[in-house]
Amino acid sequence: xxxxxxxxxxxxxxxxxGGGMSLGMDVLTEQEYPALQIFAERIRLETIKxxxxxxxxxxxxxxxxxxxxxxxxxxxxxxxPDDPDWxxxxxxxxxxxxxxxxxxxxxxxxxxxxxSELETLNQPHTRLPSHCDRKLTPGVDMxxxxxxxGLSAALGMALAFQMDSRRRNVYCxxxxxxxxxGQIWEAALLAGAKKADRxxxxxxxxxxxxxxxxxxxxxxxxxxxKFASFGWHVQEADGHDIGxxxxxxxxxxxxxxxxxxxxxxxxxxxxxSFAEGKPNNHSMNISQDMVDEAVAEIQQRxxxxxxxxxxxxxxxx
Length: 317
Prior knowledge:
This protein has a single domain (3-307), classed as Thiamin diphosphate (ThDP)-binding fold, Pyr/PP domains (Rossmann fold), CATH 3.40.50.970. The chain is built from twelve helices and nine strands. The strands form three sheets. Strands 2-3-4-8-7 form a five-stranded parallel sheet, with helices on both faces. It is α/β, with parallel strands linked by helices.
């Protein structure tokens, strides 16, 4: 049995509750946990391949949200790859739209479009532009890229669902550098005032932005406390621990009458040694040697996860 067959066998234990219809189950089993870990690594694998094919791209912020996307598309979101516009779906707004390559990888792995299409990233006539575009890419619910605007859009969707009493939720991912934008805090204020409990926000706190460390560019202080002061239900989580993210979402489901913020502590470029923690990893030129090195690292981690420990412990749960 080759690696792909073993991966499919493990992922077959549970990945997105059978075709994308989240059942809202509250138990993450010892089989599902490694399946989601593998899914996160496969998102990284396909992301580095598509960026490597292009020769450059936003590697840092794409790698830092792999686990979050794995939990969302492997467990949390109600969605249907065979019907991307399904009226009952939950919605994701990737406000940090430059991390689109990671989202495209997740969507391709879930079957929204063929994986081969990832090689067309940012090419003429592609459906996969450098930043997310809802009019081009199946599964993308909001066009993003102009930082600071996505949370307002996500809030509008959540309030619409709330007014219509529809059992749909909206998820949004922003970056910590993006929090320099004033529009983020306008949306945060309104969400708290409107008790927008259909909205869950992930803040990717990887500590870096385009021009350097966030603490040097504009120190945000205690991000969790800021959102809490606007009336949000706030939690902090290890953004590279499947169990920690899952537990935060599980807790959020138990709280009504407030929007939810999950502050993720992450590492920019995580899981890709040539980029992880490097000072200029927001966007990088990527050579074939760099791709080959990263692919080998990721494939080894996937292989180790497939074999797994005899008595796995579910972290964060």
